[in-house]
User: What shape does this take?
Amino acid sequence: MSVEMVQWLDDSESLGVRERRFDLHRGERRVPGVLWTPRGAAGTRPLVILGHGASGNKHQDYVLSTARRLVRHYGFAAAAIDGPVHGDRRHSGPADSRAVFLHFAQVWSSDEQMTDEMVADYVATLDALQSLDSIGAGGVGWWGLSMGTILGLPFVAAEPRVRAAVLGLMGVAGPTRARIEADAHKIACPVLFLVQWDDELFARDAAFELFDALGSKDKRLHAAPGTHGALPEEAFEESERFLAKCLGPGPWT
Amino acid sequence: MSVEMVQWLDDSESLGVRERRFDLHRGERRVPGVLWTPRGAAGTRPLVILGHGASGNKHQDYVLSTARRLVRHYGFAAAAIDGPVHGDRRHSGPADSRAVFLHFAQVWSSDEQMTDEMVADYVATLDALQSLDSIGAGGVGWWGLSMGTILGLPFVAAEPRVRAAVLGLMGVAGPTRARIEADAHKIACPVLFLVQWDDELFARDAAFELFDALGSKDKRLHAAPGTHGALPEEAFEESERFLAKCLGPGPWT
Assistant: This one.
């Protein structure tokens, strides 16, 4: 994958954070993404790729705020791409969040290539972004919960450049449970695994099973009361601190 | 309880931390303790009371290092007292750690007053130390795992001055399990609950049951791989950060 296949769509800046939307073309496949870097960034720095949850998109509130904090607090780069049938990949059908959620559940159940295609999208995105002078071959982190773990855990397992991963709000569950469990065993990098104690979508025991399955020796599980969608602010702070500790707090200029 | 019942035994200083051993006399009962404060401390500050684990004592490595870090990093005061049949309360019998452990297990099973007496010791210690000008009526924190939760959780439940507690390495288990569970329901302050994923002394499920039983709305569970005694350094860092956030990071002078 070469940088020539990236088409930059816009370029803006807010409070020291530069934001650029792009389309990455991988064969016939268009991968819509967004990149955040510090204003005036030059030289190698860690890159964190963020995977959004089902019914969200690459630019939803918590993806944007987490990305911006990683850029502003640590000088990291951050990037996100839309998931399958989400965001700018959504060409038809209702955009209502429940409809998107249901659509994803259907694709998850029926499309055996979905995971592999998303892993390939992430690898291509990483290749393209690391070819930029302002990113280079720095450490790579992953942050993705729920659907961001369904799709991100296989990416982390497949990609040796990933040196730290925040995963969770998911268990050994769902149509791809065997794949998820097998991939979990392959993961060796440090992991922060987040659990919501009263998760109504993925049972606590299934989440514990997934934490158990992670091959990483350096892993920790943080749980807080509340439902699937009620992740506390503290979990974001811990995510940020964990990634910074693993990837190096900088300063990156 | 008045300060006149405290007998100060010594007074030393190392790297900015003043350390004073004391005996608190509560009726016929002698409570051996140690207090750490910043050098030259004057005025109100938070106080964290630390409970050691079975076979340890008030001055063992992790109690001392945690206390010193709270003093040096945040300007807090910290204190610890020996548990029943531990440290300077140990008048007879072998001092070998396994023998002390077994002795505690026997007392835990047979002495129905043990918990109440230790709670009274902690309340008296808190009264005495808060009467000092260099501590005063600041926020109070608890840190105690394993035996430090067996004895400390009832103290936290009984003492409204405690505003934050680090508990864990324990479950709804053992001779006082009913008391522990009932007291857990009464706790309302923020709690950080630590679990070792492969704890061979207290089953993971029993630990989860205790976390569930905590009445606090603001609680979080942090788990790491490893056995009962293999608490990672990160757990101490998180304890410190949690207590500082809840009690106020200062500066306390």
The first strand of chain A starts at residue 6 and ends at 8. Strands of chain A lie at 6-8, 12-14, 17-26, 29-38, 47-51, 77-81, 140-144, 162-168, 191-196, 219-224. Chain A has eight helices and ten strands. Chain A has one domain: 3-247.
